[in-house]
Amino acid sequence: MADDGKRLYEGLFLVDSGFANKEPEAAVELCKGVLEKHGATVIRCELWSETRLAYEVRKNKRGAYLLAAFRADTMKMGEIELECRLTERIVRYQFLNREGIPMEKWYRRYEISQRPPRREADAVETESIETEEAAAS
Question: What pTM value is reported for the model?
């Protein structure tokens, strides 16, 4: 591909969970719209998960994460970040430069089947094994 100044980015958006639960398609379109408004080419954008936040962010206790893969001009990333900051329904955002890394490699780790088991479950399992060993001896 010719060097047109565009790079591959990963974008993670945290949006208001009430909005994302009522209108999931609108939440995806909101994030796509912010990116496309500044000339980005959205490759993939989807609602990833909805969860309780560790601490309140803009008076929100819950949030929905949207994951996006897109190509954007490096000079436009500042404008995209400003747009995200000014959009009320986008609570937080993070962009990572993924140029040179195949999208299938980094995007696949977010799929449910590829996620590692939760640590809480591991801790409960380890605890039950230790209890069984103690009872056996």
Answer: 0.74
